[in-house]
Amino acid sequence: MKKQTASAKRKQADVKPNRKPWIVGVVLIAAAAACFAIYRHAAPPEVKAPAASTARDDGMTPASTEKQMGNPAMKTVAFEPTVPNNNTAPAKTPQSMVWIPGGEFSMGAQDPPGMDDVGMKATIDSRPVHRVYVDGFFMDKTDVTNAEFEKFVKATGYVTVAERKPHAEDYPGAPPENLVAGSVVFAPPDHPVPLNDYFQWWTYVKGANWRHPLGPQSGIAGKGDYPVVHVAYEDAQAYANWAGKRLPTEAEWEFAARGGLAGKPFVWGDEFRPHGKWMANTHQGHFPDKDAGDDGYTGIAPVARFPANGYGLYDMAGNVWQWTSDWYRPDYYQQLKAAGVAHNPQGPDSSYDPSEPGHAKKVHRGGSFLCTDQYCSRYMVGTRGKGDVDTGTNHLGFRCVMTPQQSEEAKQGFENPARHGQ
Q1: 95 within 8 A of 416, measured Cβ to Cβ
Q2: Residues 6+ away with beta carbon under 8 Å from 46
Q3: 115: phi then psi, degrees, rounded to nearest 5
Q4: SS3 string of the chain?
Q5: 157: exposed, middle or buried (C-beta count within 10 Å: 0-12, 13-18, 19+)?
Q6: Cβ neighbours of residue 66 under 8 Å, at least 6 residues apart?
Q7: By the 8 A CB rule, do 133 and 103 touch?
Q8: Which CATH code fits 76-164+218-420?
Q9: Residue ranges per domain, the chain?
Q10: What pLDDT is stored for residue 29 in this prediction?
Q11: 19 pLDDT band (50/70/90 cuts)?
């Protein structure tokens, strides 16, 4: 009998289910499989509902075509030019990183009415467009890879959230047999399914983790240059601390992703496929049951297989989602807009998601190999994702940033040699 799960349904682009409900909801009943949702609400301090929210998780409508998405005539938002800092870049750039000059830019998503139904209303919580200033910083050229994460684990003995057995006290009422280490894996059905039930294509897999992305029978041998996945927020943060780096703020991430361009829907420009060229690892075919692999990959791809953006960053759209350090709130851009130009915004003080009040969520950016205009278009540069801090999946990774001060400390001997295998 097939195991089934349930939780409060979150209608979100490129869905990232919560690890806890998947664990406690995997319950077998003799007559039939029943679905339970047992949550431990672990919200950050001062979780409050906003006075007014621009987010709407109220339905899914088939998206517009790629041609519509890339049509410059549809742009109705007046993005102001990006004004990069004129400061001289540091003399030395840390290995495998690039210098992002920082400056002032327009942050947020395109706002044509025709986009409201694209990717499950992917632009709704990315409005209004607002001006932001960020200082210069270094950023990893690519997502952190399996090989890099393995060096960290070998040096520290770190055990990821997905590898830890859940504690019974955290899941009151859960059968002991269901308290097993594992993670959430994309498992496409073998036939078309309605898009209003993501349990049709996600499953909690015992033994799935960064070493075994699809379950215990899978592995990462020969895949050192693939993005590490199944990383919860604390896993990504632990790696960043070890490497002498940190996770980017949402504002830093978007400034870097835009690559110096202002108001473009994609990190490379106006057209989804300029001159017919694939620019990112996304989903082709029929979602979720068939990935045609027209872009050269079915599922996840190695890093840096598609063109870099204007700053030399790879995979800032598609392949895997990326953690940022900002708490998620759908009304946060309204707050920033009202305050004028925001200087180095660090995100709101607390998390709030109207569809799941009490769940502590951080902002995800960039979309993944599952993004498609049939269901999710959050490879569009201004759009946002969100995910529970304790949740990793096989389409979620991260990359790090470093301040010039951190770089100087590394030069003075604080760098961990194992970070680069030295």
Answers
A1: no
A2: 349, 350
A3: -90, -10
A4: CCCCCCCCCCCCCCCCCCHHHHHHCCCCCCCCCCCCCCCCCCCCCCCCCCCCCCCCCCCCCCCCCHHHHCCHHHCCCCCCCCEECCCCCCCCCCCCEEEECCEEEEECCCCCHHHCCCCCCCCHHHCCCEEEEECCEEEECCCCEHHHHHHHHHHHCCCCHHHCCCCHHHCCCCCHHHCCCEEEEECCCCCCCCCCCHHHCEEEEECCECCECCCCCCCCCCCCCCECCCCCHHHHHHHHHHCCCECCCHHHHHHHHHCCCCCCCECCECCCCHHHCCCCCCCCEECCCEECCCCCCCCCCCCCCCCCCCCCCCCCCCCCEEEEEEECCCCHHHHHHHCCCEECCCCCCCCCCCCCCCCCEEEEECCCCCCECCCECCCCCCCCEEEECCCCECCEECCCEECHHHHHHHHHHHCCHHHHCC
A5: exposed
A6: 272, 273, 373
A7: yes
A8: 3.90.1580.10
A9: 76-164+218-420
A10: 26
A11: low
Look at residue 69 and tell me whether its pLDDT is greater than 50. Answer: no
How far is residue 355's CA from residue 55's CA, in Å, rounded to a whole number? 9
β-partners of residue 299 are none
pLDDT at position 113 over 90: no
d(CA 312, CA 72): 24
Per-residue confidence (pLDDT) for residue 413, from 0 to 100: 59
Beta bridge partners of 227: 145
Q: 199 versus 320: which is more confidently predicted?
A: 320
Query: How far separated are the first and last CA of the chain, in Å rounded?
Result: 50
CA angle 408, 144, 324 (to 5 degrees): 80
The pLDDT confidence band at residue 292, using thresholds 50, 70 and 90, is: very high
d(CA 128, CA 118): 17
Q: What is the pTM of this model?
A: 0.82
* Upper half-sphere CA count for residue 65 (Cβ side, 13 Å): 3
- Distance of alpha carbon 355 from its chain centroid, rounded? 18
Closest listed residue to residue 163, CA positions, set 224, 123, 213: 213
Amino acid at the residue 295 = D
Within a 13 Å sphere around the CA of 308, how many CA atoms are in the beta-carbon half? 14
Whether the per-residue pLDDT at 197 is higher than 60: the answer is yes
